[in-house]
Each structure stands twice: as structure tokens, then as C-alpha cells.
Amino acid sequence: MFRRVLRRKSAALLSAFLLVFTSAVVAEETTGKPGSPGATTTISGKQLPPPPPKFGGVIKEGALQSTPWWPSRVVPPKGAPNILLIMTDDAGFGVPSTFGGVIPTPTMDQIAENGLRYNRIMSTALCSPTRAALITGRNHHSVGFGVIAEQATGFPGYDSIIGADNATIGRILRDNGYATSWFGKNHNTPTYQASQVGPFNQWPTGLGFDYFYGFVGGDANQWGPNLFRNTTQIYPWKGHEGSLKLDRSNPNAEIWPVTGKEPTWNLITAMADDAIDWVSRIHQTDPDQPIFVHYVPGASHAPHHPKKEWVEKIQAMHLFDDGYEKLRERIFENQKKLGVIPKDLKLTPWPKEVLKPWDELSDKEKKLFIRQVEVFAAYVAYNDHEIGRVIQAFEDLGKLDNTLIIYINGDNGTSAEGGPDGTFNEVAFFNSVLPPVDVQMKYYEAWGTEFAYNHMSAGWSWAFDTPFDWFKQNASRLGGVNQNMVVSWPKGIKAKGGLREQFMHVIDVTPTLLEVTGIPAPEYVDGIKQKPIEGTSFAYTFDAKNAKAPSRHKTQYFEMMGQWALYHDGWLLSTKVNRAPWQAFEAANADPLNNQVFQLYDLSKSWNQSEDIAAQHPDKVKEMRKMFVDEAKKYQVFPLNASVAARVAAARPSLTAGRTELVYTRPMTGVPQGDAPFLLNTSYTLTAEITVPKGGAEGMIATSGGRFAGWGFYLLDGKPVFNWNLLNLEWVKWEAPQALTPGKHTIEFDFKYDGLGLGTIKFNSFAGVGKGGTGTLKVDGKVVAQKRMEKTIPIILQWDESFDIGSDTITGIDDSDYLPPFPLTAEFNKLTIKIDRPQLSPEDIKKLEEGMKKAALGVQ
What we know:
The protein is built from 16 helices and 35 strands. The radius of gyration is 28 Å and the shape is globular. The strands form seven sheets. Strands 5, 6, 7, 8, 9, 10, 13, 14, 15, 16 and 17 form an eleven-stranded mixed β-sheet that branches. The relative contact order is 0.13.
């Protein structure tokens, strides 16, 4: 843990403060003799990259008679700070100790003590949208991220494309002379551009960040992620895997034992190591170049994967033994003592109709739930510790005094996507499967290890959003959007330990960074006219004189999957929550703009939405509803869509979209799910042509997904096998009775699907998905195995795994059969995949339309 953070004081504080807070474009500053190799210059910043300067030397026919001249190197304005922009994942207001939580976050605590706390910084209620808003300074719909990338639809506000007219803060700072980097989660690349085919203009390196080390997508296995350095897939954990084993030999055991040593590699530590290395490398190469680090770890998004030592530290504290209601009350009292919430605030009631009270749980449920939350808390504490190591690196290099640290707790409220009981496999949630407690108890010892993709009970999530209610995804409740953050900058912020209560939004971060660096928002980037920055700088709050100043961010809309709200000058109009996050498969509200129960709050009196006064102020409700429509039109929010799972399964661009036959003639690995053959809710045939050498062969022919959901087509002890992993709950296997003889063979797996397919989702119905079918395995034209599979995965495979041919990367789909990489030892000649998607008949369409009408009439 860093010990000396923020101790030094700047003697020239006032002059530096005045310099960086000049928001007007200043004259260009130069150093060195113009035209010399060491000359530098700032730029106006109106056009990026800046136009090439006119050659200032002399060119004659011979070099001896000519005068060389070099363009000046672009640098930021003098005194521009280093920037460390940190944001954690899926963490509500009551998570960190800095804001009354019981989970120790000493790094965040120390920044707050030496800087400022902020208790009204808003998110969008969901991952990708908040992140897009953060790095662009524009509302999430304005930059194509009305929802996460995996739910993208073909409308400007929802297509998951950050347009070229919305340059990121990384691009702006880089072109003005900063070294820029991005570590951790990248959830802002379209799913259909995440493969090695590219294009890479929507990857961090294409969005203005010189260096990227992290994963692409919503979450990742922290013990073995689908990891990239820039745009190259890497496997740094190889050789550090450990020897853990989950013994599932007794299916009737209450708890499956785990033996062996855990891996020595974990991404939370590895990305801190890589960030420290990158910062040190930049410093040693050019100590004067300002650095911008965008540090966004996967913690504390599921899967919660902390190291065992951190779980043991939390267990020893016995923080959660008395349950989630008591935890909520304890956090609430802590918040009052710290003064981060109003002293007279009332806590909203516990939602007994949604979440079972603790004293009604069985002993087994209590035991499981405590294990779930202890692993989550360990993950939070572990992550905060590693963030501290990165900050210590700035201190060790002598850079901390002029480093602006913004540490945002959560990109949205705490996640309830594990459902009321939690889940050992988050992939199951995204397929509307919530395993019962008895099944989850089997993974009790494996919780937090590589054998679980774990998420905690929503009861804990409700508590961790204290003093607010509801969760991530719920954009109309402050539990979904009201984050907190701490900010420090020894050279630029005189106030220490103060609280700031002005209303802010993550779109305000980019204009704040531009103001403190003295860099203007560009008018053109790559010749493209830029959209205006939509956020409002909060740099004014750094001055102690403005501690109680009115917020300069007056109006802000919120919308997420049909739930919406509008903030205006202290008032908040909200739609009543009509769907819990785990109810993703329920019929969607057909008219989310109007078919709502409206709630109204005066946040100056009802700071946490505890007192609805809509009935007393109908004119205010009407006025703010109209304001929301105006904002929605302005920022590309329309068309409103209340569906959740349907959008995950909806058609979107893909390298395989519309293709009914795919042919592969060479082994390959690492194709992400967005560009992989999609074999859900359809009939299909896989035909592999291989040559078996003398002595036989084994290994993976083709696979998609991994330990928590997927399929594999392989040779096991020489026998052809097709195996479906149904969410790590059941494996359906077709296996030939005999090993293949040496020589050429054709192996075919054919699946005839029973359902109507994804077409039903267009009609707000899941009637055609997840149905069963009959699989047939053939060798050289002869049927060797046939069986029926009663159900299939309806929506999505494991997203942080890939489609591989010839071997298996990261995790396998059946640990009892093989362990990756399981290379194919036969000669791979050809793989052909044919897909035959169900087509709806006119009668099918008529029935579905009638059902849709009935569902719409029944929506409350």
C-alpha cells in the first residue's frame, strides 16, 4: 500500500491553479529554437491532428548549402497534470469504507483524506453506456451506447459505435502531447469488431489510447481471461495455473471439495503490474511527458475472483454474519457519522415482496449467502489494494504532486444479476436460469476460484446501494445511478478532506480534464466536425470557496431498457421500477414512454427518493415528462425499447451474419462470440475431415465457449465426441463406440432443432428459443450415436471464451474429458458448418402477433 501518497505541498499552488484553470484557448507556447530537434510547441487544439507546419528551413540543390528544419514536438500546456482516471465496476454507493461501507478500501480512504469526496456523481445504470459517456463527455445515447454492446440494435443511439464526430478524451490528450493508456475492461468495442479481422478503430488503440492491456467485453475470468495487449491476444498466465481441482465425483455430495494450490496469476494484480511497468517506461524515456492512465479493472463485476488470502482476511472480520438487512442499517449509520449523507435522512423500507428477509432464510441459504458476499468483499478490497500500488508508482517516480487522481466507485449500482439466490454461473443468468441453492452449495468451496463464475444474492446488492434502493440496470432509482468518487491533486487542489455535494454526471469528467489541462475541445478531428461536449466541468468544485456553490449541471436525463428519469435543478421525475434485473425474459413494456407509474422527488428534501410527491404536483410531473421527451429527442434516446434478453439475441452485424455455410481449412483460435458461428436455436451440421496417424489421435476439432457454457467437437481416446455444456449444470454427449483407425475420416454431427427460433423474439416472445432437438453423430457416413437433447441454451454462450479450431484456449467445456489446450493430433483437413435457421410460417407469425397484443394489454 502506498504510504506517502499526497504528502507534499506545492509552494507555487496559487500560480499553478490559475494557470490550469484558464479555459480559454491561449497562445501557443514554444521551447527551444524553432526548427531545432529539441523544439516543442503547444497547439491551438481546434484541429486534430494539427495541420503540418510550414517548412522553415532552406532547401538548395546541395545539402551543404541547405538549412535543416524540424517540426516542433507537440506538448501539452506548461503545468498540465498527469491524470489517473480510475473507475471500478458494479459497485453501489455503500460498497467502499470511504462512504460508510464495511469493506475496507484504504486506498480510496487516503485519497479522500488528502483530497475531496463527491456524493452526487451519476452513472447511466449500466456498464458500456457509462464508460462511453465517461471517455467522450457526451451522453451515452449520443455516442451509440444506449445499452451494452451485446444488446446493440440498428438505431443511432444503440448501435455501439462511438462515431468519428465524438473524439474521446484519450484522442484529445494524445494529440496534444500526452502519453495515453487504457488498462482493464474495454466494453466499448462492437461485438462484431472484436475479432482479429478488426477493424480496430473502435478498440482502445483506435480511440486515442497509445497502449491497451485488458479484455474486450462485459466481464472476464480473472484467473484466465481473454486478454489483449493492444490488439494481440496474449496468455501471460500460462505456467502460473496452479493445481486446483474440483472433485465432482460424488454428484450427491452437499459440497464438492476443492484441493490443490490456486494459480499465482490473477488479472487484478497483473494489470497493476503492467500499468506500473508502462508508467515507469514512459517516465524513464521522457520524464517530462504528461501521462494519462485510464484504469478500469473488472472488479467488482461478476465473476468475483479474488485471491484466497483476501477471502481469508474478510472471513476473519465476520462482517456479514447478521445478514443483509443489518448490513444495510450499519452502512446507513456509518454514512451519517461520516457526514456523506444528510443527518436526517430516512432509509427506504426493505423490499419484502422482492427479497426474502434474512430471518426467513434457511441455515443453508444463510451459509451460502455469507460465502457469496465474503468473496465479493474480498474482491473489492483486493482491487483497492492493487489500485494503491499503481498510485504508489506515481509517488515513487516523483510524479504524484502534479497528478490528478479521479477514483470513481462503480460504473453503475451494485449488480443484482445473480438473482435473489445468487449464482455460481453468471452465464446461466443471461440465459434465464437461476440454479437453486442446493445446486449452488455444491460450489461452496469453489466460490471465487476458476471453477465458478460467481455472483452474490441480490439481497447484498440492495444493501450495498445504501442509502438508495434498487440496483444496476434501474435507471430510475438512485441505487442504479448515484455513484460516489474521490479526487486528489496535491498541486491543484488546496482543500483537503472536504465533501462536495453538487449534482454531477460521468459526462462531466472529460470537460473537467480539458479545463485542468488547458486543452480545448477540438472543433475538427481527422477533418470531421465534432459534436459539442455535453458535460459540464466540475473543476470549480476544487476551490474551497466553491464548496457549497450551486451545481452547474442543471438537467440530466436517464434511460435504460425502458426505465427512465429526468433530473432538473433539484427535482427528479422517475418511472416506477417494473422489472427486477433478473427478470430479463419477461414480456417487455410495449409503450415505455407513457405506460408508466410516475414518481416525483424533491431531492433537496428527499435525498434518496424516500418521499414520492407526484400526487401533490401533477403539473410538475407533466412539465418534466415533456422535458424528458425534449432531452430524448436531442440525445438520440428514441426509439425507447424495454426489452432486455431479446436484444441480446437480436440480429446484429457479424462476420458470420446471414451465412448458412462456413468452411475452415486451417486451425485457428480466438474468434470471439460476436463473430463465431451461432448454433443456438437452429438446426446445423458440422462435418470434419481429418487424417488419423498411426497410433491413433486425440484432441479438439472445434469448440465454442468454455467451462460455463459451450460445445466441443473432439477426439477422446481416439473416439469422436460431440459435447454440449448446458451452463455447467448438465452435459449432453454423443460418443462413438470405437476409436478411429489410421487414415482419412469424415466425422459429422447433425442437429435437428424443434423450435421456431430467434424469429419469435421480434414478437416479444421467447416461445421459439431454448427448445430441444435430436443430434446424430456419424463416422464415414455411418450413424454411431443418436440421442435427443430436451433443452438447449436459449440466448448466449460464455462470452469471454472464443471459437477455436484445432485446440482449445482458456477453459474447456468439460473438465472431466480434457484440459486445454488439448491440441488435435490428427491432421486437420477441413471443417464445414452448415446452419439451417427456422423460418416462421404465416400461421406462426399470426399466433405470435396475437400473443404480443395480449402481452401489451397486460403490461402494468
